[in-house]
Amino acid sequence: MASIFRFKQFEIDQSDCAMKINTDGVLLASLVDIDTPKRVLDVGTGTGVIALMLAQRIESGLVEAVEIDLLAAKMADKNFKNSVFRERLVLYATSFQQLEMTGHYDLIVSNPPFYTDSLHNPDVRKKLARHTDLDFFRELLDFAVERLSVDGKLALILPTRLAETVVQLSAEKGLHCTGEIQISSFEGEPIIRKIVLFERQPIESIQLRKFVIYSSKGVYSESYKQALAAYFLAF
Asked: Is residue 67 helix, strand or coil?
């Protein structure tokens, strides 16, 4: 039973997922500016936690998810079907590059759990989950240009250096960074992650927001508690 992670409105079985629930995923799902999207796509859903959190947030509308790892996809599909949001969740066991669905998305999100400068992990499934190169992001940006609705948004959570690189790539693809949430472990410490938001139309100044995870060692900040209060049993 240790593989079951219980939230207030759903639960996640992550026993067959190479990458488990992590802080990056829950922060992306809880902090991203979503407006009222009618159709959402979670790229690389893993356990399905981001898709489930977004289904809870938007209250209506369709949340679709793609996962290339077949075992993880099977588990995510199970988690979807066991949730109260099952009628609004769809899982595709494929990559976004091979997704054959038509139409446009109002929001595309991804927590790509891999790093372009990391060593290849010898475990094949973890290697697949953790490691890619910049071609992945070029293809994801191309996909977003093609599949986002007119006012649609692409939201990614990335390590700081990688986020800066992807922002540069986005300009070449016709997308513009319009928002950035800068995440630090503690107040005054370096930024460890960025949630970056991309849209078709540029804006005069990027909307910047700072977010701190801990108020002291082992103690979550009030901002973190507020962000996850609707989801975590502890809050």
From this structure: coil
| 109, 42 Cβ separation under 8 angstroms | yes
Half-sphere exposure of 20 (CA within 13 A, CB side): 7
Residues, the chain, total?
Answer: 235
Mind listing the pLDDT tens digit for each residue in 7-39?
A: 999 999 988 777 788 999 999 999 998 888 999
CATH of 4-228, one of 3.30.450.20, 2.60.40.10, 3.40.50.150, 3.40.50.2300: 3.40.50.150
Place of tokens 């070029």: 138
Residues pairing with 177 in the sheet: 198
What's residue 50's pLDDT?
A: 98
E-assigned strand segments in the chain = 4-6, 11-13, 39-43, 62-66, 89-92, 105-110, 148-159, 176-184, 191-199, 207-212, 214-216, 219-220
